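Example record for the data management plan.
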Amino acid sequence: MEQFEHIDVIAAKKLLDEQGALLADIRDEKSYLSGHAPGAMHLTNQTLIQLIEEHDPDAPVIVMCYHGISSQGAAQYLLTQGLEKVYSLDGGFEAWAKIYPVTGSD
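Corresponding structural encoding:
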């Protein structure tokens, strides 16, 4: 991919379940702790290096924000850092929470 792709929540859930994609939640800490998709990594400036260094660059990453806007810039940035399959979740956490359960801190 030269450009990130948009993905809806149904396709994202399928990618998570079938291909072991990583869901990276870029919302602020308070929002993340109050509720997030099960298994989502809280992607912050502090965890970014860990993601880039430890994540298989060929494995898909789905970036989630509040509404699907901020995740687009983050997704494009991850591509520039060597990750190959990066998606921005359309509708963000709000769309996810309407369909799938969320959890508090893991």
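Summary line stored alongside the record: The chain has five helices and five strands.
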